[in-house]
Amino acid sequence: MAQRTASGDRIRVLHVEDDEAFADLTAAYFERLDADIRHEAVRTVGAARRRCRGESFDAVVCDYDLPDGTGIDLLERVREIDPELPFVLFTGKGSEEVASEAISAGVTDYLQKRGGTDQYEVLVNRIRNAVDRHRLMRQVDRAVAALEAASEPIGILGADGTYLFANEAYASVYGLAPDDVVGTHWRAFYPDEEVDRFVEEILPRVTAEGYWSGEAVVYGADDRLVRERLALTHTTDGGHVCIVRETEPIEESSPNVASADATHPNAGDRDDPDVVGSDAPDAVGSDAPDPVDSDAPDAVDPDRTD
């Protein structure tokens, strides 16, 4: 009895096999095992190449030995058409040499033909997994493209607090390019007092409630303090999505600007855990010298006569 997959998405497979009886048998098992897979067969590299150029397939399943070439020859041609199309080499020519050649050429999966019916179930699972993964990556690529093109500043933090993504608008808040933000810990962009507030108040609230919105002070372009309206959303993997609603420059510098400059990535140490960690020194150092030296000699009084 044919089983329908959970996704219900149709999968169009081009099967390149010169043994017509084997191709027909494979088609029968595909129909029995997964009704969402549509099996279409050709016998040669040339025919497969023409079909791939003129039509859209979700995956290619190919034998190694073919009348006008090899499965690797076809793989190379297919990669010129679609570098990411799932390509499964399903062959009776099993050897380490063939497997190595296939992997080097960029095959998605390699499966050796064997006796029995279990091989068809394995093949169906490999096809389904490869196609699902390919479709997911296309969705991710489209989502990333949309985020990158968004005019609203958007950043994504991983569970360890480092940026996994920042679009142009988000990076520009800090006067940086996206590549300079990605891989940097969020602490690097905030004065010490704000880091403490995030760690002690804001992040626990985001974790508990899933969302927070409010104001924060960050280092913007040229190390200038900027007030931002920020929204944080907790993700299932322990990270956060950060959206900056608006920014406003702070006209008067706060007293901690000079000593906190070292926490800003433009100061050169953004990857140093001693700089971006929670144990950073207070904004105004407790060891700063007293401006009045108690041991200095008394000032000379100009009215004294002695």
UniProtKB/TrEMBL annotation:
PAS domain ranges (all copies): 139-210
PROSITE patterns for this protein: PAS (PS50112), RESPONSE_REGULATORY (PS50110)
Bias-annotated ranges (Acidic residues): 290-300
Disordered: annotated span: 247-306
Gene Ontology biological process terms in this record: regulation of DNA-templated transcription
GO molecular function, one term: phosphorelay response regulator activity
Limits of the Response regulatory domain: 12-128
GO CC annotation terms, alphabetical: cytosol; protein-DNA complex
4-aspartylphosphate carried by residues: D63
Entry keywords, A to Z: DNA-binding, Phosphoprotein, Transcription, Transcription regulation, Two-component regulatory system
Protein name stated in the entry: PAS domain S-box-containing protein
Organism: Halorubrum trapanicum
Species classification: Archaea, Methanobacteriati, Methanobacteriota, Stenosarchaea group, Halobacteria
